[in-house]
Amino acid sequence: MTLDPVDLTARLIRCPSVTPEEGGALDLLEAELSVAGFACTRVDRNGTANLFARWGAKGANRSFGFNGHTDVVPPGEAGDWRFPPFSAALAEGRLWGRGACDMKSGVAAFVAAAVDFVRETPPDGAVILTITGDEEGDATDGTVALLDWMAEHGERMTHCLVGEPTCPTTMGEMMKNGRRGSLTARIEARGVQGHAAYPHRARNPLPALVRLLDRLARHELDRGSALFDPSTLAITGIDTGNPVSNVIPASARAMLNIRFNDLHTGDGLVRWIYDQMQAVEAETGIAFTLVAKISGESFVTEPGWFTDLVADAVQAECGIRPGLSTSGGTSDARFIKAHCPVVEFGLVGASMHKTDEHVEIAHIHQLTAIYRRMLAAYFA
Predict the structure, then answer these.
(1) Whose CB has fewer CB within 10 Å in the chain, the N or C terminal residue?
(2) What's the confidence (pLDDT) of residue 137?
(3) Can you give the pLDDT at residue 353?
(4) Residue 21 a catalytic site member
């Protein structure tokens, strides 16, 4: 008996697994996988739920891995939705609900593909599933915790497919073989508070902060590289906490995010920001502090046998060959790349994180068939 990926997606959507809540989603998957002969281990850390499942021998020469997450972003106002966000409504050939697109359908597809594959054509090797409840949050105790646990227990994937939505508008059009890095910087400028009518008695941090932000924003980081789009810098917040117009604030804060390609490193960009801060501090006398967080370096899986295997499976089911891309935000592939070669392929992501998130039912079946083809080709 095959495992229906649409039904499994619907059952997962009905689990209200808003980060960091498990919501019953991983319990559900563990039950399904255990019945199918997968050895399952919960790898929970610091209140975050994670699931490791392996069919086949530990340490097999060929161990194909799937990675995904069952946590979802908050739905917002439930009344704004056409259907209740955790109802998994079926209408108009679509399945509706929070996580329908990102990425409970992807998880259901690779779980169904893996279960049916090992039942019907048991491979000479292992199939490993790593599923986290902490991808939409800080991601410090999710896939990272799973990889830490695998290293401690001698578990290893030889190749991994992350099932994140990768197609912008058409099923099959894009796969990800890399991602840009991401850096968030929080900058504080400190001056001296005073009355707006007597600016000479104060030291206003705002002009200095604005000057610094202008220097950063106007600078061209690069024009792209052979495998990546240009790096980008976005100023995402400016705040003084000052509600009145006749007081010069003592401090002001700003936040920015840099998505960077393989021409940079996170540490190198932090040093660049710090150098710009020092230059403006020398010009203005305003002191700056910087807190930076690098959530991932850029990486790329070079085109070759593995990317061709994925592309061939997509083309066979969709009739189009997916283009290789390193665009978009971050994903847990940034952690897996240090463990084994990793590629991402999944559904059309147009509705993810939106009110009335949904997925085409036909696409869930199509994705399951693609993943099944990947497994068959990998173990051929």
Answers:
(1) N
(2) 87
(3) 95
(4) no
Annotated catalytic residue: which of 22, 32, 116, 135?
135
Backbone φ, ψ for residue 253 (5° rounding): -130, 150
Q: Give whole-number Cα distances, 152 to 43, 117, 238, 303, in Å.
A: 12, 28, 43, 30
Say if 5-179+298-378 and 181-296 have the same CATH topology. Answer: no
Instruction: Classify burial at 211, counting beta carbons within 10 Å of its beta carbon; exposed 0-12, middle 13-18, buried 19 or more.
Output: middle
The two three-digit tokens of residue 359, written as one number = 């997925």
Q: For domain 5-179+298-378, which architecture applies? A: 3-Layer(aba) Sandwich (3.40)
Whole-number pLDDT of residue 192: 97
CA dist., res. 259 & res. 181, Å (int): 5
CATH of domain 181-296: 3.30.70.360
Is 71 one of the catalytic residues?
Answer: yes
- For the chain, domain boundaries: 5-179+298-378, 181-296
Instruction: Say what angle helices 104-120 and 361-378 make with each other, to 10 degrees.
Output: 40
- Indicate which residue of 71, 297, 317, 360 is catalytic: 71
Q: Pick out the chain residues at pLDDT < 70.
A: none
Dist. CA 131–CA 43, nearest whole Å: 10
- What distance in Å separates the CA atoms of residue 271 and residue 76, rounded to the nearest whole number? 38
